[in-house]
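Model it.
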Amino acid sequence: MSEVLLFAVLGLGPGALIASLAVGIVLNYRGAGAVNLGMGAVAMFAAFVFFGLRTGGFFVLEELDMGGPMPTLPAFAVTMLFCVLLGVLWDAGVLRALRKSPPLAKLVASVGLLLVLQAVIKLEYGSAGQSAVPVFDDLGFVSVFGQQVPKDPFVLTGIILTVTALLAAGYRWTRLGLATQAAAENENAAELYGLSPSRLSMANTVLAFALAGGLGVLVAPLTLLNPVSITITVIPALGAALIARFSSLFVGAVAGLALGVIGSLITLAQAQTWFPTVDGTPLPGVTELTYFLIVVIAMFLRGGSLPQRGVIVEPRLPQAPAARRTLMPTAGFVAVVAVLLVILPFDVRQATITSLIGMIVCLSLVVITGFVGQVSLAQVALAGASGFVVSKLSLHVGIGFPFAPVLGALVAMLLGTLVASSALRVRGVNLAIVTLAGAVAIEAFGFANSTWGAGGGGSQVGTPTLGGVDLGPGGSFFLGDDTLPSPLFGMVCLVVAAATGLLVAQTRRTLLGQRMLAVRSNERAAASVGIGVRNVKLAAFALSSGIAGVAGSLYAYSFGSVTAGRFGVMTALAFVAFAYMGGITTVSGAAVGGLLVSGGLVITLVQNLTGLPTAWELLFGGVALILTVTTSPAGIVGTRLPGLKARKQPGDEVVATHERTHAP
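Modeled.
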């Protein structure tokens, strides 16, 4: 029992970071209507700023004579100033431009913030971990139930609870807090009373960034300081904020601390003899899977009562026009790319193949987000699941092409439907939280498992053959050179990408596609005219997951192996960024998004011309995504769909109703 208490106390340290991010997420949502996926990156960035100041090398200014390492208190003060300035820039430069946009657009923009901050750190420090510099001197130990426990977890818990209590009191009794609550209920009414939603957003964003950055600095010595570890802490923090209904600061803080304790107790359980093992090591990913289950349970229990923040205007829907002509443009696309696959050098040919596979992933996002309005961040993980199925079937069962990819796509469809089952009650950013947690659980619990995944290494994939013809990257082709990858494999990817594009375009023109758009417009209105919202959502998730599974199979064949890192959560977020930039509601937008993906044609050509490191790719993607969200009217929340007419219904709710059976 004493050992359990010891590990529970030790879990308060990382729990304090989760709690601070959860409180910051709640602050950002209450003040600006933004669910910020980049809050963990803010904490990570602050920890590196403090590290740079304390070690004497402050980012790009390290060549300047700073008189040696900065003392602790001045370094912490400068770090907090950086967090404040970052919050000001984020709110003034991004959130203000998105003030009349729904939380969905702000969530997508926060992916850009995450990518930019990660890129900056990788460019300066690389991806390797650093030994964080503590803020406090050695605090010593305290005896708890006969066990010597470090004081650090108690200090961090006391700090986050004290700050949360002060913030909660401030929001209850101060003008800022009351004004924030009023604006959250109804921004239009708040403006009529002389309140400034922009100023309220600025104040809350700055508070959120300062809190996340401060705790990031304090907690960094308890973990490995690298661009990923603290950043992905935002995932359990989102779960804690969801439990708090994005409204209660104290509930968010307590839930975050509890999640930290749960994670620590799972670590203790993994050391016990009864805990399941794989190849002699504890079963991986149990913590991530537990967090995912907690998020799903919270979504089911509270999904129907999750608050929606009041906005000044009802946001318009993105355009998802039905293509009038598809065969001729597709034929032209196939002809041009086929010629390029033959004449391009091997590295650019590989990039073209990667872009074709990326296009298929983006097409899965077109179906689920562009057509139905459901934000899924699990598409890359689903693609990975299909890739691992193909690997296992080819190596251990003897099932190869084309049956293995079909079975892989079916597994992806099943997983996608299970992960998104909570979409039957919620949508938008709440669903994004579930799918993000699900993607992390699939990566950690599935891909990192050596039995059904690849463990710490990779899993080989058999060569695709049909009728004795090698269709893989090593197959022969009568045109072009003999270097890998073979143009023939590129032709296979091209045909699959073109067929998938035609499938998605045709789906948009069918009755199912129109029902998808109706569900995206207004679920209640769709149900009132007899549309089965539940069935439409399930069909959309199944279709999009199957498409992602097809991409995963091709990716596995392209590289001859699959690894957990290739289907990680950061890759998933990058795909959302590129799909949005290309146009997440159209097939042509998916094609452009495929050109922009990591390892794709555009990035490869730029790197060949400039020689820039891959971290610049993240920076480009993040900046381009932010610019696209804030300046382009045709993002996820673009103009109204053609053929839809907005009208007022009882309750002053704007709904969209079809004027014609077939929208143009």
